[in-house]
Amino acid sequence: MTTSEASPPRDAALFTSIALISVVAVGIIAYVLFGTKAAPDQGSLTFMPALNASLNAVAACCQVGGLIAIKNQRREVHKAFMLAALAASACFLVGYLVYHYVHGDTPYPKEAPLRGLYLGVLLTHVVGSILVVPMILLTFARAFQSRFDRHRRIAKFTLPLWLYVSVTGIVVFVMLRSVTG
Question: What residue ranges define each of the domains in the chain, with the CATH number in brackets?
């Protein structure tokens, strides 16, 4: 049996695993945002949005560093940057879930002049974040399988979307903080 004949079952299991992880992640986020009420102690984690924005900044910087490294054929440096970006994004997600579980959602004021722009950026950020999770998982899986031809093919789409999500996460934080204090 050749490698190409052995790939479809392995790919099917990989795609199923990625789909399951992605659906569970979106389900947990939806539950935290829409299915829970904020705890009465609203002051305990007020530092988290700034920390989460910082984690997005670290992830974005590592993504750019990883891109520069791979363009210079420095695979090990690329790998280190991308693993750091993944770790920062994972820490962001945990921090995001914890903060929103405790504090609930912070609405953008209806009377604020940039509300339309904020909602547009937020919408593209949320949709992008839902789409990028399975893409990131597949991109990393391809790298760890040493299937670099397939890794490169998906990474061309994953990196720009992941970078957009990381940067717009910071923009959402700054826009929201500017009107809520």
Answer: 3-180 (1.20.120)
User: Cβ distance 62 to 129 under 8 Å?
Assistant: no
47-54: long-range contacts, CB 8 A cutoff, minimum separation 24 = 48/95, 48/98, 48/99, 48/103, 49/99, 49/106, 49/173, 49/176, 49/177, 50/173, 50/177, 51/95, 52/92, 52/95, 52/96, 52/99, 52/169, 52/173, 53/169, 53/170, 53/173, 53/174
40 or 82, higher pLDDT = 82
Give 64-121 pLDDT, tens digit per residue. Answer: 999 999 999 999 999 999 999 999 999 999 999 888 888 888 889 999 989 999 999 9
Contact between 66 and 81 (Cβ < 8 Å)? yes
Phi-psi category of residue 25: left, alpha or beta, with phi > 0 → left and psi -120 to 50 → alpha: alpha
Rounded CA-CA distance 63/121 in Å is: 21
Candidates 180, 179, 132; CA nearest to 155 is: 132
